[in-house]
Amino acid sequence: MSKSILITGGAGFIGSHVVRLFVTKYPQYTIVNLDALTYAGNLENLRDVEKAPNYRFEKVNILDADAIEQVFEKHGITDVIHLAAESHVDRSIHSPLDFVYTNIIGTVNLLNTAKNRWKGNYGHHRFHHVSTDEVFGSLGAEGFFTETTPYAPNSPYSASKAGSDHFVRAYGETYGLGYVLTNCSNNYGPNHFPEKLIPLFINNIIERKPLPVYGDGKYTRDWLFVIDHATAIDTVFHNGKNHDSYNVGGFNEWQNIDLVKLLCSIMDKKLNRAEGESAQLITYVKDRPGHDLRYAIDASKINMELGWSPSVTFEQGLEITIDWFLNNSEWLANVTSGNYQQYYQKQYAQ
Ligand code: NAD
Ligand code: DAU
């Protein structure tokens, strides 16, 4: 069946991989990428698909309700996959309101338009909200987040994502809007903006700059290759149960310090440096306030109900990622110029 799918945040890290997957895998669909092109949005991420006959781009801010209406009207939008968000925890600590605006009000703007335009026909349309495991808060040393874990967000970022999740669910319950929700663990891969741990540290290793490890480095994250997140979204969008949520993750937990040491060791080989050279850049810095100790996703539901599982091991994914950054130095230079430097000074000034 032909669809006209609005993918929000398609110029960002994960969104660009979702756009590429849908544009190439589903030539019968029209894919409309709606993105405000904030500091995190970059059309360079989509150069290889921008001329595809089924791809469209709309530079729109999701805070602009009228502009969203016009995009729905112009492209006859049948479905939404919503990724546009402010996504970095550290920035949310500096500027919480930006996260309230985009992540909550922006999401409600999209929900309102979908509700009004699809009224009377909700069974034929789907709003897929892409969310995070951070809404569940922090785990201790044991256990996993499941779909029924109570929400307990700790950062302004995760609180704003939790708020958006609740609004999506409420529009389903109150108005009958068709929706699915995915809560994913930490992604990594090509096009990752170098404010997040893995791409930041790859960039700093290349430039021989300090690697700022927060606190004691014993915090744990569950890492998933971004293309596997995109296939999970594809799977849930097409086959997920209406009004249901799915946790997405790779059963791949790493303490930050172990991950950083692995990264240093691989980079030493790739850059023909002596073993141990990059690890000397590791610098312990003051901790992130409200730092969640551990995230770990139980991804059995999406695996058992929908047959999804990751396609690469962490070692394979990391290799692809590091090679991508080493081969795309121009991309890295472009995104780390300008405002990036100001952000860096503010975040890492001791
Ligand atoms: P990102 O920061 O790389 O990209 C966000 C995109 O949204 C950018 O292209 C930006 O221009 C756009 N955007 C921001 N504000 C906007 C606005 N007001 N109007 C229109 N567009 C706007 O983010 P990401 O890491 O790709 O994350 C995408 C989504 O996935 C987010 O909703 C995030 O919460 C979720 N998520 C991310 C991860 C992760 O590890 N990165 C894990 C789980 C879930
Ligand atoms: O779990 C999913 C979430 O993963 C997503 O919802 C977020 O959008 C995404 O940014 C990510 O959040 P994290 O806060 O876990 O990712 P980040 O890369 O910022 O940090 C990963 C870990 O590394 C975390 O424990 C903090 C630590 N860290 C991070 C940075 C940037 C450092 O020690 N030093 C750093 O400089």
Which features characterize this protein?
single chain, 350 residues, alpha/beta, Rossmann fold, seven-stranded parallel sheet, three-stranded mixed sheet, 17% strand, binds nicotinamide-adenine-dinucleotide, binds 2'deoxy-thymidine-5'-diphospho-alpha-D-glucose
Describe it.
The mean pLDDT is about 95. With about 350 residues, this protein is of the alpha/beta class. It has helices at about 15-25, 65-75, 90-95, 95-120, 155-175, 195-205, 225-240, 255-270, 300-305, 315-325, 330-335, 340-350, and strands at about 5-10, 30-35, 55-60, 80, 125-130, 180-185, 185-190, 210-215, 220-225, 245-250, 255, 280-285. The protein has a domain at about 5-190 and about 225-250: 3-Layer(aba) Sandwich (Rossmann fold), CATH 3.40.50.720. The strands form 3 sheets. Strands 3-2-1-4-5-6-10 form a 7-stranded parallel beta sheet, sandwiched between helices. Strands 7-9-11 form a 3-stranded mixed beta sheet. It is built from 12 helices and 12 strands. The site of 2'deoxy-thymidine-5'-diphospho-alpha-D-glucose has 19 residues, from α6 and β8. The site of nicotinamide-adenine-dinucleotide has 29 residues, from α1, α4, β5 and β7.
Instruction: Name the ligand types.
Output: nicotinamide-adenine-dinucleotide, 2'deoxy-thymidine-5'-diphospho-alpha-D-glucose
> Radius of gyration from the CA trace?
20 Å
In CATH, the architecture of one domain is 3-Layer(aba) Sandwich
Shape: globular
CATH class of one domain: Alpha Beta
Tell me roughly what share of residues is in helical segments: 40-55%
Bin the strand percentage. Answer: 15-25%
Average of per-residue pLDDT values: 97
Got a strand count?
12
How do the strands line up in the largest sheet?
A: 3-2-1-4-5-6-10
